[in-house]
Amino acid sequence: MNMRAFALAVFLVAVAVPTLPTLAQANRFESIANLKRAQNQARFAGERANGGINVYRTEPAMHQTVGTLGEARYEDVGDAWIFTFRGGSPEETAAGRYSIRTVVRVDKGTFKTTILSNERI
């Protein structure tokens, strides 16, 4: 290998290698953004199913950033996320009490929501 070809190879490696973690980070941030969108969709579905935000509020965890302390409970089931959260009247939730447990499935491809369970607790 001549010196010119070697220098070109070293340059290409030096340029390409730092971009690999950047791509991984971009994918991670996209995944977090999608999970946050799914969390919001699940919350909206729960609010609609229980009469709207004038009469129903979800627990604070459903308003927090995914990955923070007290985060929403969810399960990754491959093609969807399933969120389980509590809620109740504005007065109940302000006092930290909840009267309804809701389970919502959010499709990863379409973000379509399906209420799996919505029951009094």
Describe the protein's architecture and organization:
- With 121 residues, the protein is α+β, with helices and mostly antiparallel strands.
- Helices cover 43% and strands 26% of the residues.
- The protein is built from two helices and five strands.
- Strands 1, 2, 3, 4 and 5 form a five-stranded antiparallel beta sheet that branches.
- The termini are far apart.
Number of helices: 2
Rg calc:
22 Å
Quickly give the structural class: alpha+beta
What is the CA-CA span between the terminal residues? 73 Å
Shape: elongated
Element order: H for helix, E for strand? HEEEHEE
* Low-pLDDT ranges: none
Helicity, in percent?
40-55%
How many extended strands?
A: 5
Overall average pLDDT:
84
Largest sheet: 5 strands, antiparallel
Strand percentage lies at 25-35%
Could you name the key traits of this structure?
single chain, 121 residues, alpha+beta, 2 helices, 26% strand
Provide a compact summary of the structure.
This protein has 121 residues and is an alpha+beta fold. It is built from two helices and five strands; from the N terminus they run αβββαββ. Strand 2 and strand 3 form a beta hairpin.
